[in-house]
Amino acid sequence: MSEGSIRLVGVGSLVGTEPACTSHTDCQLEGMDARSPCSNSRCKDYNSKTNLRNVHHYFLRPLLASSAPEQVAHKVQDLLWELDSLTLDAQQLLEKLLRIYKDEDEEKATEAPHPIIPAVSSQHDQVPNQVQEKAPNVHGYIKLENSDYQAKFDYPCPNSRADWGCVLTAQGLEDAIDKCEKDLRCMAFVSIPHHSVEGWLTIFLKNGASDPAANQGTTIYIKPQSGGGNRVQPAVNQTTGQKHSANQKSVLQPRPCVWEELQAQRDMRGRREERLMRACGWKGLTDEKWASILANSSLTSADNFQHPAGGKAIPGGQLTLTLKDRQDQVFKAMFMSKTGPEEFHLSQLLVYQLDRLMGLYQMVPTYSRHLRRAELQAVGLVQTVGTLRDNFAQLKDSSGGVTGTMSAQVSAPVSVKTHLTVPSLVELTQAVTPMGTEQRDDLEYILLSWLARLPLPTSLYGIRGRRLLLTKADAAFQGSTENQEKLLHYLHNCHFPQHLYMVLDTARDRRCSLAQQVFQQVKSALPPSHSQDLHIGQYSMESLISTMDRDMNRLLDLMDTCIDKFGKDVVLYQEAMKTG
Question: Alpha-carbon distance 349 to 284, whole Å?
Answer without folding.
Answer: 23
